Amino acid sequence: LRGPQPCVASAKSAVTWKRSLLICAHEQLGSKFMPIATTELKAKIIESLNLQDVTPELIQDDAPLFGAGLGLDSIDALELVVMLEKHFGIVIKDIEEGRPAFKSVRTLADFIDARRSH
Asked: Distance of CA 118 to CAs 2, 92, 111, 113, Å?
């Protein structure tokens, strides 16, 4: 078996170089250590909840997920808990533990990143 291979990033542009570096980090470390992008999380939320006519661009990062924001309800909260376990391996055992995480897409992304880094 071969060990980790060195990553070679192109120096064509700063954007290309950063993207290459992120791809290399993902390949070497796995997704466990990569922060989740809010766009990726929004897509997972849309898919998990089967939200019709909603795209990631329509969901603001800091808008409330429940009530006036995206308008999710308690059944949707259960679906999000299942999505977290299925896609990210994160188990929420206590409602009080998860409640602050479900304020917005950004707080949920921060929660996922914090839990995956432990």
From this structure: 27, 14, 11, 9
Nearest CA among 30, 27, 46, 17 for reference residue 105? 46
Mean pLDDT of 90-107: 91
Gap between the Cα atoms of 111 and 94, Å rounded: 14
Structure tokens at 36: 């989740």
Sign of CA dihedral 20, 42, 107, 92: negative
pLDDT tens-digit series, residues 17-44: 555 555 555 455 444 556 789 999 999 9
DSSP-derived letter for residue 53 is T
Locate tokens 């897509």: which residue?
A: 43
* Contact call for residues 106 and 38 (beta carbons, < 8 A): yes
Would you state the pLDDT for residue 14? 55
Q: CA–CA distance from 3 to each of 6, 28 (Å)?
A: 9, 10
Instruction: Quickly count: other Cβ atoms within 10 Å of residue 47's Cβ.
Output: 11
